[in-house]
Amino acid sequence: MAMDLSLQFLFSSLVTASLVTLTVAQQQPLYVDHSCSESGGNFTRNSTYETNLNRLLSSFFRTTTHENGFYHFSSGQGSDMANAIALCRGDASSSDCFNCINSANAELRDRCPNQREAIIWYDYCMFRYTNHSILGKMEINPIFYKWNENNVRSVAAFNQALGSLLNNLTNMASSGISLGKFATGNTRVGPSQTIYALLQCTPDVKQIDCSSCLSQAIGLIPVCCNGKQGGRVGMASCNIRFDIERFYNLTAADSGTMEIRVIHLKLLLSYLYLLFLLFYF
């Protein structure tokens, strides 16, 4: 029995929509903030610095190796040397990490077309370049803030629980684990609310410098995010984020995020195939 053309169209449309949805979800990293530094000066078109910067940026597109989601490259010499680092969140899969960095790489040149120093933050990564040495150096500026517009009910209790959680995670992140200088955790506030937090430093900085950077970021929470259900502070060498909803992956690196997506897709296609057989026969 020939299958009705309308059913054929429905089946093919559902499969196509599923694949497109999955592809879009993987290919659109979430932009957070950026900064084009005026203090670092500008470069002129076709200058030696721009040549070095372009050569350096192309290295990120070609590379496939990294250490804990951390990349660093240099190109050129002297005042025309271009230096860049990139850091992925410790819970990001390898594919999400690589996709995020390449998106950040391209977008930062568009947003800061002639600045010698610039930085961009995405949800899954940070990307930065400059004309001075940055590897192994803890730097605070530039800084960005973001916050959840909703307020907590009991500010004092929330702040006390949040402060304790962030201090514990600062010790964990600065000490370094298998994922680099990265830590996540949660704590309860009363019987029905949980605070989730994520802290990270670039793994090239020393333990004492990571701890200092995170402590300064935590110190800015009352400025931007006091009494809010969530907030984040990003700096050149570290970042922190907290929220009452879990926003990070429980698995890390290649341990399951991409495999979960593949499993879900296979289950969906299997279900659609069963529908196809049911209508066809």
CATH architecture of the largest domain: 2-Layer Sandwich
Mean pLDDT: 81
Radius of gyration over all CA atoms, rounded: 22 Å
How can the largest sheet be summarized? 5 strands, antiparallel
Helical proportion, percent range = 40-55%
Distance between the termini: 7 Å
- How many separate structural domains? 2
* Beta strands, count: 10
Strand order of the largest sheet: 1-4-5-3-2
Helix-strand makeup class: alpha+beta
Order of helices and strands: HEHEEHEEEHEEHHEEH
Q: State which percent range the strand residues make up.
A: 25-35%
| CATH fold-level label of the largest domain | Killer Toxin P4, Chain A
Task: Report low-confidence residues grouped into runs of 5 or more.
Answer: 9-26, 252-267
Shape: elongated
| CATH class category name of the largest domain | Alpha Beta
Q: How many DSSP helices?
A: 7
Supply the CATH superfamily name of the largest domain.
Gnk2 domain, C-X8-C-X2-C motif
Structure description:
It is found in: Secreted. It holds the Pfam family Stress-antifung. This protein is of the alpha+beta class. It folds into two domains: 106 residues, Gnk2 domain, C-X8-C-X2-C motif (Killer Toxin P4, Chain A); 99 residues, 2-Layer Sandwich (Killer Toxin P4, Chain A), CATH 3.30.430. Helix content is 42%, strand content 25%. The strands form two sheets. The protein has a five-stranded antiparallel β-sheet with strand order 1-4-5-3-2. It has a five-stranded antiparallel β-sheet with strand order 6-9-10-8-7, with helices on one face. A hairpin with a 3-residue loop joins strand 9 and strand 10. Helix 1 packs antiparallel against helix 7 and helix 4 packs antiparallel against helix 5. About 12% of the residues have low confidence.
